[in-house]
Amino acid sequence: MLRRSRKPVVLAANKVDDQRTEAEAASMWNLGLGQPWPVSAIHGRGTGDLLDAIVEVLPQTSAVAEEPVGGPRRVAIVGKPNVGKSSLLNRLVGAQRSVVSDISGTTVDPVDELVEVGGEVYRFIDTAGLRKRVKEASGHEYYASLRTATAIERAEVCVAVIDASEEVSEQDLRILSMVEDAGRALVIAFNKWDLTDEERRRYLDREIERDLVQFQWADHVNISALTGRNVVKLRAAIDTALEGWETRVSTGKLNAFLGRLVAAHPHPLRGGKQPRILFGTQAQAGPPTFVLFTTGDLDAGYVRFVERRLREDFGFRGTPVQVEVRPRAKRS
């Protein structure tokens, strides 16, 4: 099969832990796949030479096309295992595109699908459920986690699916933080709404107030992928998040806002000194990133206050807002 593929083959002879077993590795010449490279995966022996051999046969240009610029908006469906991500994609597509099972971990590789929702075409990416942090995962879970992180990076907006019939977990919060840290727009979909009763919904409201307070900027949609309840409402939430994600504020408007803010709420005194915001600019959109040039370091609480007021004045619904502080260099 390797010969028929007509692809370069690098043959690694593993478990060669010392020079005595190198002679045994030479017997692999009989396979007809070229030079065997003796290595020891457990000790790292010979891996440098193996990597050099791999680099030697790599093509100068990748055969995989880069992500095209433009086209349908890219939406990643993320969440922990068995919350209904694949069911949601299948509901959107109207066909059995992803395998659905009660056994968690059914989806391993991200699945792309062009989907029309409310007359608009989106590229949806169904991802593997994340059980653990990437560095804590092992085996296929580790690589599934890496692929999911890559899918989040590729996306413009993420739909984070949470099981409404269960308590909001630490893993749910970790996934939301992954999306925020990646700077992607966010929509939170509470799935399995058909399995909740009035009591569970009251508890869920309390959990949202208590645990999701740092994600108040993201829209929530209560859905049922099984019955199709409110799935079509995802389009409005996705469009709102993308609009906020791409919002730009002119430098003039931004500095007029900062002037009013500082006049009404100056930074507290620290050690007899009061840092001031000299001026600011929006460095980029997607996500909105602002740079504040100041006379000194600003307290983290004051930076959060500025971010909150930016949201109140300019919107930014459904997107993280990043504020960077650049203190003026001290004169020597």
Automatic annotation (TrEMBL):
Organism: bioreactor metagenome
MF GO annotations: GTP binding; ribosome binding
Protein name per Swiss-Prot or TrEMBL: GTPase Der
Species classification: unclassified sequences, metagenomes, ecological metagenomes
Residues in coiled coil: none
Keywords associated with the record: GTP-binding, Nucleotide-binding, Repeat, Ribosome biogenesis
Record flagged with keyword GTP-binding: yes
Chain's gene name: der_46
Ribosomal protein recorded as keyword: no
Pfam families: KH_dom-like, MMR_HSR1
One BP term from GO: ribosome biogenesis
Family: Belongs to the TRAFAC class TrmE-Era-EngA-EngB-Septin-like GTPase superfamily. EngA (Der) GTPase family.
Sequence intervals crossing the membrane: none
InterPro entries in UniProt: G_ENGA, GTP-bd, GTPase_Der, KH_dom-like, KH_dom-like_a/b, P-loop_NTPase, Small_GTP-bd
Domain EngA-type G: 73-246
